[in-house]
Amino acid sequence: MVTYEKMNQTEFQEYMEFMLPDYARDISEHYLIAIEKANEEAEQQMKNLLPDQEKTEGHHLYLIKKDNENAGYLWFHIKKDEKKAFLYHIYILDSFRKQGVAKKALGFFEEEARTEDAASLGLHVFGSNVNAIELYKRLGYEQASISMNKVL
């Protein structure tokens, strides 16, 4: 059984310790910037997006649990005034992949967004994340824009 628990302060700090370096590596790789600069950018983005950490209004940060074990993380934001929800991050731990956990977590995200009267869901995915892109398409997400680069 998959369940969702709101992060407390300790869990939020542990999540940031995991997520920030991973996100910085993605920024560095995909936008061709030095890892040091990517680390700075990732940290600044998190400070801007989550000024009150896990208690930032409109942001929802969850531990995804499967059979009471940590299976991953889910972070989304709902803008009630715009009736939009945005998925900032979903991460499923390796040992829980290919078990339907991500699909269920995305269903939970959709349910929560509907509960708060969101009319649309959005997300960003790096083009190299083929498995995630396939899952999003299966769940009805459509491509809204494309950002491309070419290494010289």
Automatic annotation (TrEMBL):
**Could you list the residue ranges forming a coiled coil in this record?**
none
Q: Which residues cross the membrane?
A: none
What's one Pfam family the UniProt record gives for this protein?
Acetyltransf_1
Cite the N-acetyltransferase domain residue spans from the record.
22-152
Quote the SUPFAM superfamilies the UniProt record gives.
Acyl-CoA N-acyltransferases (Nat)
Q: Which InterPro entries does this entry report, sorted A to Z?
A: Acyl_CoA_acyltransferase, GNAT_dom, N-acetyltransferase_domain
Q: Which PROSITE patterns match?
A: GNAT
Check the UniProt entry and state the signal peptide residues, or none.
none
Domain of life where this protein originates: Bacteria
Q: What is this protein called in UniProt?
A: Ribosomal protein S18 acetylase RimI-like enzyme
Q: Which organism is it from?
A: Fictibacillus barbaricus
**Lineage, broadest ranks:** Bacteria, Bacillati, Bacillota, Bacilli, Bacillales
